[in-house]
Amino acid sequence: MFEKxxxxxxxxxxxxxxxxxxxxxxxxxxxxxxxxxxYDNEAMEIDSLRIPxxxxxxxxxxxxxxxLKSGDEWNEERGKLxxxxxxxxxxxxxxxxxxxxxxxxxxxxxxxLVKALLQxxxxxxxxxxxxxxKGYNQMKIRYExxxxxxxxxxxxxxxxxxxxxxxxxxSTEDKERVATLMFLKADx
Length: 188
Prior knowledge:
By secondary structure, the chain is α+β, with helices and mostly antiparallel strands.
């Protein structure tokens, strides 16, 4: 099953994405123990657990600024294939860590439940792009800093713009020297 969505990033660029839910059955986790937390918050160790059905999630996000030639469009079929392959990339020996959802009894995971899980995942990606795009939050911080610098330069008087641009181009060490000199000069 697939569900589509769109992230509008910090720069206003749209990133279409696809979430895939792969429902598979008959896992046996005999090689290791599984820790399950019960409803009363007590951890239980189980040596072997038969899992009749598990759902794995894969996500594919289009990054228009990276790798795509200008004018290229999001290829939905390719996005589906990437998302499906990511969902298939689960670790059978670590099912309790890689499955989005698993059941210990058959019949618990229905098509409507998987559809609801997909919709929740789409909403989660939209609300928190870092979930699907590693490093998104750091990119956002860098982008916002750059925008702040541009705004500061644009709002500076014309006679200071050149000086501000020169300061920005300095190495961190040189910026620290200038700041120290400015601080010492201010004390005089």
